[in-house]
Amino acid sequence: MIKLQLPISEAAIRELKMGDEVLISGLMVTARDAAHKYIHENWPDWLKPIMENSMIYHCGPVVKKHEDGSWSFVAAGPTTSIREEPYEAAVMEYYKVRAVIGKGGMGEKTLAGLAKSGGVYLHAIGGLAASLAKSVVKVKAVYMLEELGVPEAFWHIEVKDFPAVVTMDSHGGSLHKSIKAHSDEVAKKLIFG
Amino acid sequence: MFQYDERKLKDQLLELIRLAATDLPKDVVESIQAAYTDEPEGSAAKSVFGMILKNIELARAESTPICQDTGTNIYLVYIPEGVGMRKLTALIKEATAEAVDKSYLRPNAVDSLTGKNSGNNIGEGQPSIHFEEWDNDFIEIKLMLKGGGCENVSTQYKLPDVGLGAGRDLDGVYKVIVDAVNQAQGLGCAPGILGIGIGGDRAASHLGAKTQLFRKMTDTNSNPDLAVLETKLKRDLNKLGVGPMGFGGNTTVMGVKMGSMHRLPASFFVSISYMCWAYRRHSMTLNINGEVSYD
């Protein structure tokens, strides 16, 4: 297990290799479909200090609002990342984001972007919502809650020992590509004999 | 005439939702435990299954959702003659909104035109409720929570499929299912459970596929040909090596459940409803004495 503390440098991220298991601590931000569309249309400055040398978590949480107005995460597993494929490489480069955390992996455009701007794709376990919510120790702030709704808002969160696996690195390595290449071969045999 | 206490039933429905969101059924947990046992020590797959099993325990102990995507809430409601559907629908919606307040469900209903989240998980077509009248003198309500990740990899084929060499027979059905699971990789939160609908029009075919997912993991198909095909598909699909979350491993699917219906001479649809490992379904029965039991 490799411990990663946020903010993190480009050099430290470039040391990570496909297959590394990591535990992440520090401040990161959630962003999913509507948030990526919003970023791509507006490129807001207010996200710069939140995202620089930090990570984006593809997650739409179940939250609880307390009487004092503060929030906590009740369930917070990853959502499918490939839907952000059109945007992610550009978002990571513009804001100097060092990793995205999600599930299912991403495509060629993001893989090339990781190599170019210095980033990795971190795979969290889908459906691990109760456990991963425990890793979110604090909700620091929420942005655009009214406009985007609970699942789609930007949640600025502090995590401690959040577990994930590097499945795409900054050297062109992608676990998703190698698993797919193998299963394509097996499927071909099963279908065509 | 079957009568029930509305206030009590609303609370009983809330309990059904809580169970579905937080407590994975026994037959599913046993399948995941078997998958864990089947992976070699030190593998990523074993580590993933271990974390999954811990998460299931934690969610049950703390009564919090197993997965934050509490999905489309799909209800199959079986009612004796004379029980009103509108009143039951209203009670289900009331229980749904309360379940959001209690953080058992995420507000998951988004207006497709404006993008606005309704905030209480209720909207046009949400929750998804299907009624059927039956001869029994009790009400049975089955609920499944089906998340977006697995719904997005669910698909429908039209036979013949030239590219796959799939004709209009069970061999053709087999081929398109292999293709669908290979295309899905880990994206539907593998290992999956497949509900298969053969025949029907496009809509009936998809609903037929989903309905198969209400069967127990351990049951056997009453049609002997489909029973054989279910076993064969499970064995062969696990050769794909996709494994949990697509990390590679021995278990890519935990079960295949197939059903068929009549079709038009011109149409031959095969619908594949992919369910994630967080296979959340429970049911309740309410008898004429007001006694409720959950499964």
Structure description:
The complex is a heterodimer of chains A (193) and B (295). By secondary structure, chain A is of the alpha/beta class. Chain A has helices at 10-14, 33-42, 48-51, 88-95, 108-117, 129-135, 145-148, 175-192, and strands at residues 2-5, 21-30, 55-57, 62-65, 71-75, 99-102, 120-123, 136-143, 154-168. In chain A, the strands form two sheets. A five-stranded mixed barrel of chain A has the order 2-3-6-7-9. Chain A has a two-stranded antiparallel ribbon with strand order 4-5. In chain A, helix 5 (108-117) links the parallel strand 6 and strand 7 (120-123). Chain A is globular, with a radius of gyration of 17 Å. By secondary structure, chain B is α+β, with helices and mostly antiparallel strands. Chain B folds into two domains: 6-23 and 66-147 and 280-294, 2-Layer Sandwich (Dihydrodipicolinate Reductase, domain 2), CATH 3.30.360; 149-275. In chain B, strand 8 and strand 9 form a beta hairpin. In chain B, helix 2 (26-37) packs antiparallel against helix 3 (44-62). The mean pLDDT of chain B is 97. Chains A and B meet through strand 4, helix 6, strand 9 and helix 8 of A and helix 3, helix 5 and helix 6 of B.
Low-confidence stretches of chain A: none
Order of H and E elements of chain A: EHEHHEEEHEHEHEHEH
Biggest sheet statistics of chain A? 5 strands, mixed, barrel
State the strand order across the main sheet of chain A.
2-3-6-7-9
User: What is the CA-based Rg of chain A, rounded?
Assistant: 17 Å
Helix content of chain B: 25-40%
CATH topology of chain A: fumarase
Strand percent estimate of chain B: 15-25%
Strand order of the largest sheet of chain B: 2-1-3-8-9
Provide the β-strand percentage band of chain A: 25-35%
Structural class of chain B: alpha+beta
- Which CATH first-tier class of chain A would you pick? Alpha Beta
**Which architecture of chain A would the CATH scheme give at its second level?**
Alpha-Beta Barrel
Q: Largest interface here, residues on each chain? A: A-B, 49 and 54 residues
What is the count of distinct domains of chain B?
2
Overall mean pLDDT of chain A stands at 96
Question: What's the number of extended β-strand segments of chain A?
Answer: 9
How many separate helices of chain A?
Answer: 8
How many independent structural domains of chain A? 1
